[in-house]
Amino acid sequence: MAHDPIRFRLAINLVIFLAVLVSGTIVFMFIESRSFIDAFYYIIVTMATVGYGDIVPTTPAGKIIAILLIITGVGTFLGVIANATEMMLSRRETQSRMRKLNMVIGVFFSEVGNRLIHLFTLADAHFEASQKDLIITEKWTREDFLRVSEGLKAGKHRVEISRVDLDKLKIFLMQERDFLVRLLENPTLLEHESFTDLLRAVFHLAEELAYREDLSRSPESDRAHIAGDINRAYHLLVHQWVDYMEHLKENYPYLFSLAIRTNPFDREASPIVA
C-alpha cells in the first residue's frame, strides 16, 4: 500500500525538527555555558521565529550555531506546521467524501441491494445455518463486526442456481438498470473500491441476464456460468452490507435502528417497533 505523501512529509520534518531541537539545545548549553532551560528556550524561540532577544549567543561558535539553526530549524518548524495543517484539512475532506459515499451506498441498498440479498438468500441452501451471524442488534460492538467480517472470508454464502428464479431476477435488474448506470457514472464512487467492485458485479450480472431471451433453455454449462456471476455479486453484497451496517451503528443510530428492523437476512424482520 502506498504511503500517504502528506503523512510522509510530516514524519520527515518531525524527525529533522526533533534532531535539530535536541542537538541544538545540547550544543548551545556547552558552547554558551547556559542551563538546559535557557538553551531549550533559545532554540524554541529561534525556530519559531519569535526571537525575543533576551537570550543571544555571545561567542563566535554560538553565533555560527545560531546561523545554522535559523537555516535548518526555522524552515523545518514551518514545514511541520504546514504539513500538520494540510493533513488535518485532508482528513476532514476525506471524512466529508466518505459521508457522501456512504449516503450513496445507503440509497443503493434501499433501492437494489436489500432486494437482491432477499432473492439470493431464498436460493442459499445453507442460509439457515449462517443466518444467525447476520442478525445484527444494537448491542453489537466493533469486535462483533470484525468477527463476522472474518467469518465471511470462508465464503459460506452461496446460491444454488436450481433454486434461483432467473426470470424474476432478470426483470428486477432490468428495472433498476438505469439506476445502476447512474451510480457507475459517479466519479466519486471510484474512491470506494469495494463498493465499485460490487456495482460492477451487479451490473455485469444484469448484462448477462439481459442478453438471454429464454433463460429456461440455458444449458447446464451456461447456468453454471450465471451461478458464478450471482455468487460473485452475493459475496460482495454480504461484505458491503456488513460494512455499511457498522458505519450506521457508529454514526447514525436512527438509521441503524431502521436498518436492523428491515434486515434482509432476517426472515422475521419488521419495520414495526415492538
Strand content: under 5%
What is the CA-CA span between the terminal residues? Answer: 47 Å
Helix content: over 70%
Average pLDDT metric: 87
Integer-rounded radius of gyration: 30 Å
Strand tally is 0
Give the helices and strands as they follow along the chain.
Answer: HHHHHHHHHH
Structural class: mainly alpha
Overall description:
There is one protein chain. The chain has 274 residues and is an all-alpha fold. The chain folds into two domains: 87 residues, Helix Hairpins (Orthogonal Bundle); 167 residues, no CATH class. Helix 1 runs antiparallel to helix 3, helix 3 packs across helix 9 and helix 5 packs antiparallel against helix 9. It starts with a helix and ends in a 13-residue tail after the last helix.
How is the topology of this model organized?
Blueprint lengths: L4 H28 L3 H12 L12 H63 L4 H5 L10 H11 L13 H10 L1 H8 L8 H18 L9 H32 L1 H9 L13
Please summarize what this structure is:
The chain is an all-alpha fold and 274 residues long. The protein has helices spanning 5-32, 36-47, 60-122, 127-131, 142-152, 166-175, 177-184, 193-210, 220-251, 253-261.
